Amino acid sequence: MRAYDPTEQRFLKDVDQHEMTVVLDDKEHRHLRFRRPGTYCMGFDVITWPGYLCICGDMGDYLFSRLSDMFEFFRGNPDGPLEINPSYWGEKTRNNKTKEYSAERFREAVNSYLADDNEDITPELREAVRDQVLAFADDEWLALPAAHDFSFGDFQFDSFYEHDCREWTYHYLWCCYAVAWAIRQYDKTK
């Protein structure tokens, strides 16, 4: 996790003054609005209809589809920490950007091949990797081909495609907390 990723505590601080407005509440047709009075900053709406849940607002828009009543899909324990499952929930999104390229994860993946206990890893190889692969780490469109195409003697980054050099976006994680929290707020009124 990056130092700046939203945690439950950071999220709760962001919404500590938000108020819920029920725009519509008719079985699986719901529209809940969450805003800090007087501002749209980090405001969001949660809208459901049979088989779908949409969260939209200042922190992004995500559409999920899984069960007829999507509150059942996202509803966690009413007490204790907010429970989110970014990986599984991400599988239920419809064409939403939940992950982005991470230069840090790319560097970690490349460096995992250069273990200190491997006697075949020479200073010359390390220098070649630095100059021909790691030099491009900040640009996804240059970095990934550089790793895939790299060879030095008998060395290659075998199966590099198996490394996921992406991580959850800040906004997606924030919205996951928002959905879990919104359902908890809604349930408290019932």
Please give the structural blueprint.
Blueprint (H helix, E strand, L loop, with lengths): L7 H7 L4 E8 L2 E7 L8 E6 L2 E6 L4 E4 L4 H5 L11 H6 L7 E3 L1 H10 L10 H10 L7 H10 L1 E2 L2 E2 L9 E3 L1 H20 L1
Antiparallel strand pairs: 1-2, 2-3, 3-4, 4-5, 6-9, 7-8
Task: Please sum up the structure shown.
By secondary structure, the chain is α+β, with helices and mostly antiparallel strands.
Number of domains: 2
Strands side by side in the biggest sheet: 1-2-3-4-5
Low-pLDDT segments, ≥5 res? none
Instruction: Name the beta content range.
Output: 15-25%
Overall, the morphology is elongated
Q: How far apart are the first and last residues' alpha carbons, in Å? A: 35 Å
Structural class: alpha+beta
Tell me which oligomeric state these chains represent.
single chain
Cα gyration radius (Å): 22 Å
Helix content: 25-40%
Tell me about the largest β-sheet.
5 strands, antiparallel
Average pLDDT, all residues = 93
Number of strands: 9
Question: Could you explain the architecture of this structure?
Answer:
The structure is a single chain. The protein contains 7 helices and 9 strands, in the order αβββββααβαααβββα. It has 2 domains: 8-98 and 169-189, no CATH class; 100-166, no CATH class. It has 190 residues and is an alpha+beta fold.
